[in-house]
Amino acid sequence: xxxxxxxxxxxxxxxxxxxxxxxxxxxxxxxxxxxxxxxxxxxxxxxxxxxxxxxxxxxxxxxxxxxxxxxxxxxxxxxxxxxxxxxxxxxxxxxxxxxxxxxxxxxxxxxxxxxxxxxxxxxxxxxxxxxxxxxxxxxxxxxxxxxxxxxxxxxxxxxxxxxxxxxxxxxxxxxxxxxxxxxxxxxxxxxxxxxxxxxxxxxxxxxxxxxxxxxxxxxxxxxxxxxxxxxxxxxxxxxxxxxxxxxxxxxxxxxxxxxxxxxxxxxxxxxxxxxxxxxxxxxxxxxxxxxxxxxxxxxxxxxxxxxxxxxxxxxxxxxxxxxxxxxxxxxxxxxxxxxxxxxxxxxxxxxxxxxxxxxxxxxxxxxxxxxxxxxxxxxxxxxxxxxxxxx
Length: 391
Fold this sequence. Notes:
The protein is mainly alpha-helical. It has a domain at 55-260: Rossmann fold (3-Layer(aba) Sandwich). The chain contains 16 helices and eleven strands.
């Protein structure tokens, strides 16, 4: 295996397109991004966004869509899954104040709140939005997180299962036909054609069923969770998504704002600071240099550290790639930032991880190293070194 890096931004060729839930995730078991003449799909898509999309026409499409769902009696007419972060605050605010919608924001609770995350979730409400907070069974969520960490190297997976389906579920519950998420993940390196779909693929949140004993969650089937860890199916109700027939009967549509408005994360940050009570972190995030992205969940820091271990693609890599791509920084600076920060372990949260997952520090560190593939890493005098460094 040879790993190359995008010549325009800094993404590695082993970055996954879509993680395959339910199995130990390795680059060999995952679709990875495509390069053309040394340039990644994300950069190629950014050029299309800049030069080939009629954003005024997209704006008209958006207004037409919203007019179909706009309430006439002041009732909720759009659901916005919102953590209180810059992107969901941006989406909520423009829907309400630019387009005259009446959004209900819904939050799938982080596994381990940060102080900044709690404050920004409260700031979302303070900024003028109704909000419903969904918190799954803490005992079950902690166990699932631990299992996903040790089996898959993906402690964020149980959170993603809930976060991905909370919007459509709340839309059905509150009889609201429209759901708006922020960006399509295809923005960051999936095949170009995926960016042209304004709606989320329903298979992303309807293809698993916790009432099916063969469904995989946290690396185990539901029947294995019950037999080996005493987790009952009714303990997992919060994670179960709506099925496609329910969505069809409810006329539920799930859309991406990034299809209708040119998506630039740093611009979303500026907008949110200017127009709402959103607050950046007082210091940079460990593992990166930024102060404005992914602030709400301590477990997200661990997730990105494992992405660095498995795919050379941690938090600094994600932040730098999109900022190089959108010309906020140049590639040389992006390379320097990634090499300086991407490998940082979020040491200030290790105690929280150990307590939350009920795991010893030795077992925790051993689990991290178990996901270092020999094809990617060398251990030199006790330090891990990339076999394919970013230059």
